[in-house]
Design a protein that fits this description.
Residues 231-270 are annotated as: Disordered. This is Cytochrome P450. The protein is of the alpha+beta class and 592 residues long. Helices cover 51% and strands 8% of the residues. It has 2 domains: 3-94 and 395-516, Uridine Diphospho-n-acetylenolpyruvylglucosamine Reductase, domain 2; 102-371 and 545-589, Cytochrome p450, CATH 1.10.630. Strand 1 (51-56) and strand 2 (59-64) form a beta hairpin. Helix 10 packs across helix 11 and helix 11 (201-233) packs across helix 14 (294-304). It binds protoporphyrin IX containing FE (HEM).
Length: 592
């Protein structure tokens, strides 16, 4: 019984990061993580604190999730290199230099920052997005019942393909449907085993990838060449212009309404569409940097990063960039659409507050749903942030340590280590959501007594060598194993999870958008979009599309889940996914 704490102590004294000692060969702790990421992370955090070592997918991994460590992993690009684990991803996308290589990455972020800024969302994306959503909601209305997860998947794929990538698509409905199906097959390949044998997911994905390139290249080639010529002739060549990333101002912009023009613009080919929205303000509606189209952003960032034109116009390269965008949009938005609608349908109080807010907006702005109108819906924004906190759609990200990295806590992440920053871990131990003080220690019980704690050191696995816990950086009192144990003892309930995480058994207590409306209760370790050097570039797109969908849905329908417990039965990996067939959503039209 004392062996494991003793080994932990020894490791901690050596600056070695603690973690479980036994795990299954090859798969390690992957099944526990996949089955219930919050339960897994909560238990591990109670035992080890904000950093621990484990094995995932056959690889030793250092999992991190508290503010001080996240800050370093997110921002110190000298120490940590962006990494995508799993062979299937690299089989489908060979080249991620634009994410990994610092110079190319800087240009990529600048240009993509412009293409995905609030100004660009308002001017270029919101209108076409609303048109696509309206088309889907018409079909939902016609059917009266949809399987929410599947309907969300169809919608997110159309938003990704028709709106965000900005690439031309075939015009015939059959060919479009084929393109969608092929992209879905490619994406399914990401989650299979990396075994290329007839019938495997990756085999099908590689076949679909080849077929897609054949269909799309003739459509994209002319436009890409034209864009490249324009970009080369323009002032951007030297890459000396302002940094578009600085635009992440709380963008309140006025352009980009959702009326008939938006419908027309959604149908127009990309370049024409750009000219049409120019009327919305080439300065992007007042933010000051011209919004770019995605294709231009990708071509210009590669040129500025020093790539040869021939390499940029290589069909493979262009396709991979487009595929990267589809993955970024679809693999996240479909889960967010599903989770946010399901959560609102599950929580009548939340829904009636949302309806009140929509009534107010209708009274103030009429039927307009522009970026600035969506920006004036604080409760809706809180609902989406709370959805992303409780039902994260991204599990986090990976880095490789380029050298030994000494953390402030004294632990050392060794050179070459794979580091996994976990959204679930960050949300588990958010200092704003934990009680300020753990429950007092009981006088008796089978917990280690003072003699044992002095043996293992007061800080135990939370700080090497039993040093005093560092306060104010992570969760203060919970930096010590004693503090965390006391906290664990104060939690009752069948899952062993605290109320702020227990969406399965205590949904009403867990899902509380109100916490976002007051500074004191607002989560402080919210990591839904990551942070630092790789902070999600699509966060304004993601927030806008989720707000738009919910606003349109609330204004048009009374909706309810056939099975109100769909979220209780859902799995959270890789994003909120219902058990097959449990996610029927019934819709009745009624104007608000
Ligand atoms: C709910 C929706 C979304 C979530 C939760 C999400 C989450 C994330 C996270 C956590 C990262 C950081 C990964 C890391 O640090 O390793 C990231 C990066 C990124 N996201 Fe998103 N994302 C979403 C939607 C989108 C959309 C719609 C787009 C594109 C339109 C997008 C584009 C990107 C890009 C390009 C990066 C890489 C940034 C870089 O490496 O510099 N994301 N996203």
């Amino acid at each position: 019984m004392f062996v494991i704490p003793w080994v932990q102590l020894k490791l901690a004294q050596l600056g070695r990061i603690p973690g479980p000692i036994f795990w299954l060969p090859l798969i390690g702790e992957t099944p526990q993580l996949m089955q219930s990421p919050f339960k897994y992370m909560w238990k591990r955090w109670l035992s080890y604190g904000g950093i621990f070592r484990t094995s995932l997918l056959g690889q030793q991994v250092y999992v991190v999730g508290t503010q001080d460590i996240l800050r370093s992993v997110w921002s110190d690009e000298e120490a940590f290199e962006f990494h995508v684990p799993g062979k299937t991803f690299s089989m489908l996308i060979n080249d991620i230099r634009h994410l990994r290589e610092p110079r190319q990455h800087a240009f990529f972020r600048r240009r993509l920052g412009q293409a995905l800024s609030p100004a660009a969302v308002a001017a270029n994306l919101l209108g076409p997005m609303a048109a696509v959503m309206r088309r889907h909601l018409d079909s939902w209305e016609h059917r009266g019942r949809v399987l929410l997860s599947h309907a969300s998947e169809e919608l997110s794929m159309d938003v990704a393909l028709e709106v965000v990538t900005g690439h031309p698509l075939p015009s015939s409905p059959d060919a479009k449907a084929l393109v969608r199906r092929l992209f879905r097959t490619v994406l399914n390949g990401l989650y299979g085993l990396p075994i290329v044998l007839p019938g495997t997911a990756i085999y099908k994905a590689l076949g679909a990838r080849r077929q897609l390139m054949k269909i799309l290249w003739p459509l994209v080639e002319a436009e890409a060449t034209e864009v490249a010529a324009r970009v080369r002739g323009g002032k951007e060549e030297g890459g000396e212009e302002e940094d578009g990333e600085d635009e992440t101002l709380p963008g309140v912009v006025t352009a980009g309404g959702c009326g008939e023009d938006a419908e027309a613009s959604a149908r127009a080919p990309t370049l024409r569409r750009r000219r049409m929205v120019a009327g919305a303000g080439d300065d992007g509606g007042g933010i000051g940097v011209a919004p770019l189209r995605m294709l231009e952003a990708q071509v210009s960032s590669a040129l500025a990063g020093g790539e040869e034109l021939s390499a940029i116009l290589d069909p493979e390269q262009l396709f991979e960039r487009a595929l990267g965008t589809v993955i970024a949009v679809d693999e996240t938005s479909r889960h967010l659409f599903f989770a946010s609608v399901a959560a609102v349908a599950r929580a009548p109080d939340v829904r009636s507050k949302l309806e009140d807010e929509q009534r107010q907006a209708l009274g103030k702005y009429g039927h307009e749903l522009s970026y600035s109108v969506l920006g004036d819906m604080p409760y809706l924004e809180a609902v989406i942030k709370e959805t992303l906190r409780l039902l994260p759609v991204s599990i986090g990200g990976f880095r490789i340590a380029k050298r030994d990295v000494q953390l402030r806590s004294g632990f050392v992440i060794p050179r070459g280590a794979v580091v996994y920053w976990s959204t679930h871990l960050a949300h588990c131990c958010d200092p704003a959501l934990l009680p300020r003080k753990p429950a007092p220690e009981p006088a008796r019980g089978n917990h280690p007594g003072p003699w044992f704690r002095s043996l293992i050191g007061a800080g135990s696995a939370g700080a090497p060598g039993g040093q005093e816990p560092r306060r104010g950086l992570t969760v203060g009192v919970y930096d010590t194993v004693g503090g965390r144990r006391a906290l664990a003892r104060s939690i009752d309930g069948p899952t062993g999870l605290p109320a702020h995480l227990d969406f399965q058994m205590r949904f009403e207590e867990a899902f509380r958008p109100e916490r976002w409306l007051i500074a004191e209760t607002r989560p402080k370790q919210w990591a839904a979009f990551g942070g630092g050097g790789h902070l999600c570039l699509g966060q304004h797109v993601a927030m806008a599309e989720a707000k738009l969908l919910l606003a349109m849905l609330l204004r048009r329908f009374d909706f309810r889940l056939e099975d109100p417990e769909v979220l209780r039965k859902a799995s959270l990996f890789p994003g909120p996914t219902p058990r097959r067939g449990t996610d029927g959503l019934l819709l009745t039209s009624r104007p608000l």
